[in-house]
Hints:
By secondary structure, the chain is of the alpha+beta class. The protein has helices spanning 2-10, 14-33, 96-101, 135-146, 273-276, 281-317, 323-328, 346-371, 382-393, 395-408, 414-442, 451-478, 504-517, 520-531, 539-566, 573-580, 583-597, 604-642, and strands spanning 52-53, 57-58, 60-66, 106-107, 112-113, 118-122, 131-133, 150-155, 158-159, 161-165, 172-176, 178-179, 181-183, 189-191, 194-203, 208-219, 226-228, 234-236, 244-245, 251-253, 256-263. It has a domain at 55-276. The protein contains 18 helices and 21 strands. The protein starts with a helix and ends in a 5-residue tail after the last helix.
Amino acid sequence: xxxxxxxxxxxxxxxxxxxxxxxxxxxxxxxxxxxxxxxxxxxxxxxxxxxxxxxxxxxxxxxxxxxxxxxxxxxxxxxxxxxxxxxxxxxxxxxxxxxxxxxxxxxxxxxxxxxxxxxxxxxxxxxxxxxxxxxxxxxxxxxxxxxxxxxxxxxxxxxxxxxxxxxxxxxxxxxxxxxxxxxxxxxxxxxxxxxxxxxxxxxxxxxxxxxxxxxxxxxxxxxxxxxxxxxxxxxxxxxxxxxxxxxxxxxxxxxxxxxxxxxxxxxxxxxxxxxxxxxxxxxxxxxxxxxxxxxxxxxxxxxxxxxxxxxxxxxxxxxxxxxxxxxxxxxxxxxxxxxxxxxxxxxxxxxxxxxxxxxxxxxxxxxxxxxxxxxxxxxxxxxxxxxxxxxxxxxxxxxxxxxxxxxxxxxxxxxxxxxxxxxxxxxxxxxxxxxxxxxxxxxxxxxxxxxxxxxxxxxxxxxxxxxxxxxxxxxxxxxxxxxxxxxxxxxxxxxxxxxxxxxxxxxxxxxxxxxxxxxxxxxxxxxxxxxxxxxxxxxxxxxxxxxxxxxxxxxxxxxxxxxxxxxxxxxxxxxxxxxxxxxxxxxxxxxxxxxxxxxxxxxxxxxxxxxxxxxxxxxxxxxxxxxxxxxxxxxxxxxxxxxxxxx
Length: 647
């Protein structure tokens, strides 16, 4: 019996894993059942290659402007930049994830043809008729330059990058986008109005070509440096005269560009490697090794408790001749008549646990498919779109666990708990997002969620998630409650005074430090991707870290639940959830540390955005880790009390 108990305790969240794999199997079966479509009949961005003949026109599109100082992206044409010749702006149809990211993909006047170099071309005006900016326009551009805004262009779904050299090592790196302008040592502001588009191509048959890299070299060019050639062509004088901007003054300038094509041995399938090589893989491996060490440390503690302590306790309690002596001793055996007593506010706890199950499975399925390469950075917004979609459909699983757990706690109002589970967490998130959205609207940023997109998200929530949660709670409530190995006494036992180290706050800090230590390196890269406009693609490492996080939260929850019961404190229901979510405290503290040490935000609205979205992340992480710890403690307690004889 003891061996079976040990085996079962090692997998405290087995039920959640089984549900997750069943969901993956069902989704795979549905995908396999779809009719086969010829390859040439569709194009999936980032998956199917596009081939161009020599001289074929290639669209140059703009995504947005971003700055790590303000965290407020803007539409490309929020500044008085050159528009297409026909004056028509064509915005590409976007996914929900792109809209939420602030991406507004639009056409530009740049004319690029495959393998056709361009020495110098005036973008939107002739040399003799430069662009005229009003004083207000000039001030707006200067403000963006002073906040170090980057412009993001797109060619064949490949973002532009700027090559720069690291001062210490002289190694070359790529930075996403190109700088709108720069500020010199004397405080002068200059705009980068000449772009050199360097495009790399790869070919197998010298007939069809594929774009494999897109770099931009910038230069500030004054009016006197641009000389007319023929038509819209131009030449640049060797004397460098940058285009300066003066506050509250009218500006006359020209926008020019050149195009250079270079052959490359990089194949189309590997064209993203140069962009994704910005992060050091060795650091990720160090994170994994560090996490494994933490898990092994926890496993050693857990094994010592189960094999040594529990074996001695269970053997003692199962001796008939020493029952009276055992009853006189202190320990977890003495609270067997109260350990499964329903907690206060059971409805709220069940709603939290159901939401946590929904979040857990959403993250598991999304990271799993991202690991398979289906949600790569080349498909902008696909990760967020997939997460929202999976979360809505996992409502039926979260509702099932909520309903069955609520019935186990002898609850009666299943409709009420279904409403709480389906509404509580999404309502909190949407309230924060809508509140922040008012400030973003006031800044006219592209990060402001359009009203129609907000209606789409609300429709998905009310039309998919809430009904599925309702169905899940109904099915779970009709199921038999979870079986408990011991009966509950009618009169609750008095809880003795607890030791200082069993205080919930101290236990939360203790429970959170090890899971956080197992993931904080990966958390740094996630924060960098979100707030510093970096690519994140190490989903294989993230999947391993997610599994390690699950195991470490389960193990530390079991250890602390055992210590709590040894102190004859049987109020473990809420405490296992709250204490196991202690790593969220460290995530919140780390976010504050990251804000003051890594970011250079000094304005009110960006600061509000950072801490508002970080609050959503911390609450989500608290529900996730709290749910893992709750099910681990629940499974552990049922096993140990099922292994002893109770009169």
